[in-house]
Amino acid sequence: MKAAALLHLLQFASPALPVGAYSYSQGLEAALEAGLVRDAASAGDWIGRHLREVVAQWDAPLFWRLLGAYAVRDDAAIAFWSECYLASRDTAEFRAETVQMGYSLARLLAELGVADPHPALRGEVPLPTAFACAVDALGIPHEEALLAMLFSWAENQVLACVKSLPLGQVAGQRLLLALRPELERAALHARGVPDEALSNWAPGLSMLSMRHEVQHGRLYRS
Questions:
Q1: pTM for this structure?
Q2: Is pLDDT at 116 greater than 80 in this prediction?
Q3: Whether 159 contacts 172, CB under 8 Å
Q4: Which of 65, 58, 149 is nearest to 101 (CA)?
Q5: Under CATH, domain 26-210 is a member of which superfamily?
């Protein structure tokens, strides 16, 4: 991987990127409130299961398809997979999360002069579409971009646990380190899963997200 591409990847996969990732927990705060996540062990179980059953089965494969669509300039495929991702956000919070972050990243790309306005970056833009656009514009290798997307998601989940549980920074980093094999398997699976096997079926997570919309004393927006 060339140095320029690596530096671009580090910048655009960083939690410091001003797109608001830190303000979302993707249902984790509701799981904390319900007592489903209460310590390092249960946090690891929750994040690992979310990764295997949802992210590796849906978010990551769709991102991989969007990367391929951008590479061959297939606008129809970009629009199709973007619409699929938006349709899969089955609660108001989940949809608002990806639209807000997608909009913020698309606007940032335009303001930095990284990518020209693209038809897929108008209207409601899901985050995977905007990130795939950045990857394409900056010449970042797809496999590394996929791993970065997965790591960024896992890091945000771990940070939410560190902020909300009696879980120290070292324990959080230990948890993130332990997730490495799972992240590698998720990336490998995402690159090979066929269209007919794609799924975001997680009714328990959806119900927790809906409960979070009326949860008292929230720190996160999802």
A1: 0.95
A2: no
A3: yes
A4: 149
A5: Urease accessory protein UreF (1.10.4190.10)
